[in-house]
Structure of FERM domain-containing protein:
Amino acid sequence: LASKMSILGLKKKQPKTFKVKVITMDAEMEFSCEVKWKGKDLFDLVCRTVGLRETWFFGLRYTVKDTYAWLKTEKRVLDQEVPKDSPITFHFLAKFFPEKVEEELVQEITQHLFFLQVKKQILDEEIFCSPEASVLLASYAVQAKYGDYEPNFHKPGFLAQDELLPKRVLMQYQMTADMWEEKITAWYAEHRGIARDEAEMDYLKIAQDLDMYGVSYFAITQNKRDTDLLLGVDAQGLHIYSPNSKLNPNKSFPWSGIRNISYSEKEFTIKPLDKKKDVFKFYSSQLRVNKLILQLCIGNHDLFMRRRKVDSIEVQQMKSQAKEEKARKKVERQILAREKQMREEAERAKEEMERRLFQLQDEARLANEALLRSEETADLLAEKAQIAEEEAKLLAHKAAEAEQERQRIEATALKTKEEKRLMEQKMREAEQLAVKLVEQSERRSKEADHLKQDLTEAKDAERRAKQKLLEITKTSYPYTPHHRDLALGSGSMRIDFKDSDMKRLSMEIERERLEYVEKSKHLQDQLKELKSEIESLKLEEQQQQAGVYSLRNEARGYPPEPPYMPHSNVRTTLHAP
């Protein structure tokens, strides 16, 4: 009894719920599940939470040992080989892939989840993609994330943090990240006007043509030769590949040509619909993998047959709703595009108006500044005009004074010219007089010389006469003292008389010479005075002319120039007596 009670106590203490973490391609969710829940209960909860109605493409995948498995919907969650962790981690992923994404994927959320999963498989190199296709797919991914390309907003380097290309492609070419970004941006710029769901659908339409798209690969061996092969399961059928090539299958079995697939423990058997064809058998080493292969084959075959039937009411409703939703969104996008265009035009008009306003403000400011400058210039010009008027008056006054001075100087110059002419005439007369005096002096000098010569001759004649008289006296008369005295006396008287005449004559000549010398000296003094007066008159005349010239220049506003000093042309010649 006690043991029974303890067992009942343990049963009561067992938890009624368990924690589950579900990871989708863009979110993580945690749920508290009841212990009795089946896989379908948890799957439906996740689909309702995500808002997904196309549930047949998806499943909850979990990791078990060295492989993975899909949660079965008909069994309880805790009865399956799920991890014992808390919370139990599941990945909500696409389990089956459509043949034509554009026709089969109806909901936008379905398209988005497929887009994210296929994009991750390409980047993780689970799906092989050529470099050209990788760049094109990356451009659609950028369009889906960032919208239309705006050069002013999407500056170089805006894709630096995004993973857009497989590492194999990046390592295949010697190109920098900036060069790859430039190539992607060139395609991205051409996708203008494509909405996010359209860009994701275009991405999927390109990706579905890749050889490894939607294919699940498993390692197998062939029955007889124990040859290593690869089995590929996808929406179109089963494919057999060589181990080193996942792109081109060696043999394919489309779903339409398969009559039956069965397995017994590790052996798989594919029976063609055409009985003439051989049955294909292969082996898989793990029972868990064999169950997974069979599960994928059944699910893909069911979807293959479902596509070839009329859509169910639910699918038709979903497609109708999706069509209406797309139409509504298209209209909304058109309205949004028009509003965006109108807003851009309004913003451009606003910017233009602001630019025009700033331009007008600048023009007004410049006009005000120009007005202020013009007012200042007008005041300055008025002040300058007043100064110019005063200067004009002053110059007119100076011009009048200069004119008066000029007239006075001209009168003085005329007077000076007249005086100069008189002085020159006087000087010429003085020169003529001086010449006459010189001539008279020379004539008188010659006369004096003649007189001196006559006097000398007279003295010689007198001496000779005296000598002859003495001789006559000595011969004619005897010598007596009385007669000698008488004779001497008469001779003396005559001699004295002759001497006095000579002396008087000499004195007169000397007196006349002195008078002439005195007159010559006086005349020379007069000539010097005349010369100095003439020079002073010339100097005054030059100064007056310079004054008139400077006054005229001042009246005209020219700078004064130094007066020209010509050399005197008057030459005075004085002859020494």
Remarks:
- Confidence is low (pLDDT under 50) at residues 1-11, 477-497, 563-577.
- DSSP finds eleven helices and twelve strands in the chain.
